Amino acid sequence: MKKHLSSLLIISCFLTCPILAQVPQPNLSATVTTTKVVIKDPKLIALPNIKLVDDKKYNQKLENDKKQYQSYKNELKDEQEQLYLMLDRILRANKLQYQNWRIGIKVDTEEVNAQAGSANLILINSSLYDSLYDNKDALAFVVAHELSHLILGHSQKSYENNYKIKRLQENIEYYKEQSRIQNNNATLNSALGNSYAATGDTLMGISYSTSMAVAHSQINKLYAQERQLEYEADTEAITLMTRAGFDPQKALDAMNFLSALPNVQTASSSHPSDSDRIDNIENEIQLVDIEELGKQGKSNIYDSEVLVARKSSDKKTVILSSQKNSYKNTYIPQTKEDKLMKKAYKYYLDNDYILAKTYFIQAYAINKTKNYLAPLYLSYILEYDYKNNNQDKKSLKQAMFWIKKAKRLKPEDKFVIKQTNDLKELILSAKLAKKADLSE
Q1: How do the domains of the chain map onto residue ranges?
Q2: What is the pLDDT of residue 177?
Q3: Cα separation of 233 and 256, whole Å?
Q4: What is the CATH number of domain 14-46+334-439?
Q5: Looking at residue 25, what DSSP letter applies?
Q6: Any idea what DSSP says for residue 315?
Q7: Structure confidence at residue 415 (pLDDT)
Q8: Under the phi-then-psi rule, with left for phi > 0, alpha for psi from -120 to 50, and beta for the rest, what region is 81?
Q9: How confident is the model at residue 27 (pLDDT cuts 50, 70, 90)?
Q10: The sheet that has 309-311: what strands, in order across it?
């Protein structure tokens, strides 16, 4: 992160969803009418199995942890202790104790900055720390953001991008110099009356100006990749801090502070605009399940031990020692598609089919080539609506629309086959009923 910290959930209206614009829209009631019809659920979407922790036992665990923390207190400065306790909590809540981690404060009273080093190092500039030290949740977002860069492998990606950017910038300077030299030569030849005078502004038949334009375009694409890494780190930071029991809304406090700082946004900026980051964070907060993450983190902390703290060899940072034997050495983040599917399924189980449809549609839009479960469950919802809404043919037609999408993706799936046949029977029954009505 350079000047400030270094990732969307747009709740689309069902009636304006571009996917559904292809077919007529049914009128879904916001409340479920009492009926004997039961909506289908083959339980194909897995929800996390969270071990619940007794509050009394958990509080006793925290008291025991405090005693352990006290044994390190005399070794650390106040600000080091705060960052140590914060990182210990985030690491344990997210099962990240598989390696040593380092955290510290870099003395810099001017540049508001934090950074993730390649050697598992998180550094917070003193100017940023001093601004947020009394807002522990906002500071936790800063720490979680930098930690996200490390666990998502952004340091290597950023190193590669910066290397490419440097080489391209060197090429641009070379093109400029060669173009200047050759144009000067051409001007001189022309003044001397040489018949072979030319602009000479070419490199293997391509003008230097064109080569420079191509290089600039490539640089802008690499900076766009850097900005995407910042979005990803923001997104993952919300999950990490929420699982550790910090308030994700306070991440906006940190961003609002940063947005008040002077900043000029260009195509070569390594960070997105603050307003775009704030929008992304707000959407992510809506998407994550705060209660579920809190329970996960509570269980993980209860099952783990305090990480041993010791000063680094230069005495400037704190090392949190790993517990390698107990944890996997990788972190697998949830994709946005997974989050949307789980959120949709929870609304499905709660009989809130309006919101379930909204999130299933968004999940399908992310992965139209593999996600067959979203259209399958959408067909269940619309079939249920058909049976409970005076057999509205629009719902039945739309249910068929979605099951066809599921069938194209997974034609051999037994639940897709059964749903296809069930809907065909309903359509046949509707046609027979219509004929009977006409005959009367």
Answers
A1: 14-46+334-439, 55-155+226-326
A2: 87
A3: 17
A4: 1.25.40.10
A5: P
A6: S
A7: 98
A8: alpha
A9: low
A10: 114-117, 121-125, 101-106, 317-320, 309-311
DSSP symbol at 120: T
* Cβ neighbours around 315 below 10 Å, total: 10
Q: Cα–Cα distance between 415 and 117 in angstroms, integer?
A: 49
**Percent of the chain having pLDDT more than 70?**
84
Q: How many CB atoms lie within 10 A of CB 134?
A: 8
Q: In the prediction, which pLDDT does 325 show?
A: 65
Q: How far is CA 228 from the centre of its chain?
A: 10
3-state secondary structure of 386: helix
Rg (CA), the chain: 29
- Count CA atoms closer than 13 A to 76's CA, side-chain side: 25
Tokens standing for residue 393: 């043919």
Q: Which helix (H) or strand (E) holds 58?
A: helix 55-73
Backbone angles phi, psi at 97, to 5 degrees: -85, 20
pTM of the model: 0.82
Strands (E), 222-322: 309-311, 317-320
Quote the tokens at residue 42: 């083959």
C-alpha dist (Å) from residue 166 to 122, 293, 312? 25, 41, 32
Q: Contact, 374 vs 363, CB < 8 A?
A: yes
Length of the chain: 440
CB 379 within 8 A of CB 406: yes
